[in-house]
Amino acid sequence: MMDNELAINLARIQFAFTVSFHFLFPAFTIGIASYLAVLEGLWLKTDKGVYANLYRYWLKIFAIVFAMGVVSGIVMSYQFGTNWSVFSDKAGPIIGPLMAYEVLTAFFLEAGFLGVMLFGINKVGRKLHFVATLAVAIGTFISAFWILSVNSWMQTPVGYAINDVGQFVPAAGWWDIVWNPSFPYRLVHTVLAAYLTTAFAVGAVGAWHLLKDKTNPGARKMFSMAMWMAALVAPTQIFMGDLHGLNTLEHQPAKVMAMEGHYESHPDGAPLILFGIPNSAEKRVDYAIQIPKASSLILKHDMNAPLAGLDTIPDEDEPPVGIVFWAFRIMVGLGFAMLGIGLWSLLARARKKLYDWTWLHRAALVMGPSGFIAVLAGWVTTEVGRQPFTIYGLLRTSESAAPLDAPAVASSLLAFVVVYFIVFGAGIIYIFKLAAKTPEAHEPAPDDAPIRSAGITPAAAVLEGDQKEGAAS
Amino acid sequence: MNGIDLTIIWAAIIAFAVVVYVIMDGFDLGIGILFPNFKVGPDRDTAMNSIAPVWDGNETWLVLGGGGLLAAFPLAYAIILPALYAPLIAMLLGLVLRGVAFEFRWRDPSHRARWDFAFTAGSVIATFAQGVTLGALLQGITVEGRAYAGGWWEWLTPFSILTGFALLAGYALLGCCWLIWKTEGALQRQCYSYAGRLGILLLLAIIAVSAATPFLEEEYYTRWLAYPGVLATAQIPLATLVVSVLYFRSLSKKQEAAPFFYALGLFGLSLIGLGVSMWPDVIPGRITIWEAAAPYESQLFMLIGAAIMVPVILAYTGWAYWVFRGKVGSDGYH
């Protein structure tokens, strides 16, 4: 049925579109929430104003990011049913409880304490407020834990049986299902990615203000903290990424073949294809620039180890190679660029020039969005790489979709595109506006009363608007 | 079956989540519905401030309802969501618009009017869509095998439109009574003046929906009106009458908190009525809760989590409400 195929493809586009938007926000909230907890903790401990100011500064941005994450996340939680109902029926008995745990242990925790975090500082006192900040930060982790467990189970399903109506039902203990083979790698890789994303976003804001004024204490502090994160987390992430890749080779070899561009098997050592254009029609990579035997060295830690290629799997099980191949290279390339910035910052620190090397600041500024791009590229690598399956090797994407008419999916897709671009476009503009303000300027001390929407009273917001207009004219 | 019937417990938990959702998000959606009627400036800020710290937690119950349905009754989730595709997508988009308005209106004073409009539009769309969803579920869904088999406009009937409007009236009433409780001065007087009319509107809506329901399915007719069951079911309209009288009396006495709780009482009774019509089906007339249920192991695993977490959630949610107790002003809580 043509119409059916069209409806499924539209549903895929809709899912990719909504989840791509959504994923950016939690990737950022996980990092900022932890950053805020660290800032408030340091403020409690040292009583230094710079931490309180930075807390207030990033809290406003966090509030916007969090709101966008929440509303786009509610869309995701219903989209399994609206567009992928057959999948929901079949996988519900296993993924449903994991997602319910996410709601019970994470969403409520974040949402419940968010109000106190944003509006409650002069109602509950500093220590209790810190508890609220911690609760929100911990909530973001717990959320990542469950959702990655769900995703990992779909990639590396274990502990299931199939009942007489075709549902996947738990057969082994839940411990095995939650801690499925790819979960630990995926969890650590994703949380580190969230930290790097935030480090480079914070670093870029710090760098921007350093370029304008090297002496600004808020800018110095946030740039320094961000560069520590980059220097420590980027190498850890590259190491974790390698482990994750080995795990993927074990459980989802076709995905790794697509990532590496190995159409053909290599009995005595596979080359590492750095660049090239995958040609799925001809089953080869055109214009390949490659290092002999290096792929076997990376994946098997042995130059001459044999490596199977896509020629070993049936055509109908082959993932779209081009997208996976390129997305993977974008992710890895950015990862190494991040490592470069981290090392550069260490050098600058050793020479006591962290706040003076303007080329470092410019580079950090350019790298501001790198985390977001890398996160999306990584997500595309892993999700497109598992196609054509929703539950790897067991349930095809084409057999997972809801029985919908193409016009229904098309009109909802259009509605999502329009609303998302308006809403999230506006949100991103507001984030840029907030980030463009010099750190310490209007950050009232947190014990100033009264406090409204993430630290701005309506009156202050109006005043601020006036000042901005005044400054512009 | 393994001693205790977890399916009934799970039906009760999901019903509980829906009830808590309607009670908690109802009033903050209602404030969105009434928002254009409030004066630009302090009145609107006050109305917004009264819900800003809690709306996010309120809305999470909707996620628990949906997520719980997927986990405990995957078949029902897989049939209901495609069947109600258009209203559910509309609801989600409405919630997107409204959810960001809380933050954006403060960030962008020069476009505040636009985000206020988005707040209202999102609240109205989400509420109407939820009402339509309830009505469409009640009027029945075409099912073949394990899947929805109707078209994408099947939900659209005069009855579902009626339930859509009924919920608009209901949430507006809750929002109105919440503001009577949480505010003072001109805004409170304005809400007192709306509360009577909204109360009458909601009662008319309840009467219309109640009168139409028994004729949707023969099953409903017998459940409600066959002797001797009618002796029990008749208590629901009687209780509704009593609560309505108490509601209007509390208004005329200018009580502040009581109208909100009587309004919640009216909602509770309506939901009990919905339960009478549907029980023990999850898709009325087609699929019972036992047919849609997830396996015992899934239900048990989740029940452990729910038994521990729901009381904890209620405790810290209660604490958050306690932190923001008392009257709210345009410059926040004092």
Question: How many beta strands in the DSSP annotation of chain B?
Answer: 6
Largest sheet descriptor of chain B: 2 strands, antiparallel
Q: By helix and strand content of chain A, what is the structural category?
A: mainly alpha
> From the alpha-carbon coordinates, what is the Rg of chain B to the nearest angstrom?
20 Å
Mean pLDDT of chain B: 86
The strand order across the widest sheet of chain B is: 1-2
H/E topology pattern of chain B: HHHHHHEEHHHHHHEEHHEE
Unreliable residue stretches of chain A: 445-473
Q: Structural class, from helix and strand content of chain B? A: mainly alpha
How much of the sequence lies in strands of chain B comes to under 5%
Describe what this molecule looks like in 3D:
The complex is a heterodimer of chains A (473) and B (334). Chain A is mainly alpha-helical. Chain A is 71% helix and 6% strand. Chain A contains 15 helices and 6 strands. Chain A has helices at residues 2-46, 49-83, 85-119, 121-124, 126-155, 174-178, 183-212, 217-251, 253-260, 294-300, 321-350, 358-366, 370-385, 406-436, 458-472, and strands at residues 160-162, 168-170, 272-279, 284-291, 389-391, 395-396. In chain A, the strands form 3 sheets. A two-stranded antiparallel ribbon of chain A has the order 1-2. A two-stranded antiparallel sheet of chain A has the order 3-4. A two-stranded antiparallel sheet of chain A has the order 5-6. In chain A, α2 (49-83) packs parallel to α8, α7 (183-212) runs antiparallel to α13 and α11 (321-350) packs antiparallel against α13. The longest helix of chain A has 45 residues, at 2-46. Chain A is globular and about 60 Å long. Residues 445-473 of chain A have low confidence and may be disordered. With 334 residues, chain B is mainly alpha-helical. In chain B, the strands form 3 sheets. In chain B, strands 1-2 form a two-stranded antiparallel ribbon. Chain B has a two-stranded antiparallel sheet with strand order 3-4. Chain B has helices spanning 6-34, 42-49, 55-72, 74-83, 85-107, 112-139, 158-182, 185-212, 218-225, 229-233, 235-252, 258-278, 289-292, 296-323; strands at residues 143-144, 147-148, 281-283, 287-288, 328-329, 332-333. The N and C termini of chain B lie far apart (55 Å).
